[in-house]
Amino acid sequence: MNDFSLRPTNKPINSQRAIIVRRVRRKISNNTRFRNWYKRFHSFLEFKTSSYKKNISAKFYIKYFLISTLCYLFLTNKFRVKLEFGKQLNSNEMVKMSSTAALPLSKDSIINHAIPGPSLNFEHLFQININDDGSAKAKKRYIKRFHKVARDEMKKFGIPASIKMAQALLESNAGQSNLSLKNNNHFGIKCFSKNCIKGHCSNFHDDHHKDFFRNYKTSWDSWRAHSRFLSSDRYNHLKKHKKDYKLWAYGLKKAGYATDNKYPEKLIQLIEDFKLYVLDI
Question: Which fold is adopted by the domain 107-280?
Answer without folding.
Answer: Lysozyme (1.10.530)
